[in-house]
């Protein structure tokens, strides 16, 4: 009985959708923020030297404020799959974004979610 439950639990967790870093719970705020984007910088996640295999899908959600010129300030890591390379790459890319001037004033909070593959081996010929 216990083994059956354990196998079922492992199978069910394999079928569970991947963690979305708060995308569904914060959809309205993220959509509002995306509408203000004027320039979107590419997300460049560093590949570790010992990378092998297809890599892992990772995500990170950042909250931030905008100054009166549409530049990002006060970046805060809100949710993540705890992959340091992804967290750093997302914050670095976000600093390069430009937005329409802060519609909600400089105290309004905005949010974006970044997704990427970490640890993928480079393609070999």
From TrEMBL:
InterPro entries: TonB_C. It comes from the Bacteria. SUPFAM superfamilies: TolA/TonB C-terminal domain. Residues 32-125 form the TonB C-terminal domain. This is Energy transducer TonB. It comes from Dyella mobilis. The lineage of its organism: Bacteria, Pseudomonadati, Pseudomonadota, Gammaproteobacteria, Lysobacterales.
């Amino acid at each position: 009985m216990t083994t059956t439950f354990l196998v079922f639990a492992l199978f069910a967790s394999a079928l569970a959708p991947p963690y979305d870093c708060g995308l569904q719970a914060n959809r309205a705020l993220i959509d509002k923020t995306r509408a203000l984007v004027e320039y979107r910088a590419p997300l460049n996640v560093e590949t570790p030297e010992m990378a092998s295999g297809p890599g892992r899908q990772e995500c990170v959600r950042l909250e931030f404020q905008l100054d009166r010129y549409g530049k990002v300030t006060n970046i805060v890591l809100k949710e993540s799959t705890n992959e340091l390379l992804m967290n750093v790459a997302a914050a670095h890319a976000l600093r390069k974004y430009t937005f329409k001037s802060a519609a909600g004033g400089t105290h309004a909070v905005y949010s974006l979610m970044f997704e990427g593959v970490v640890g993928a081996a480079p393609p070999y010929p």
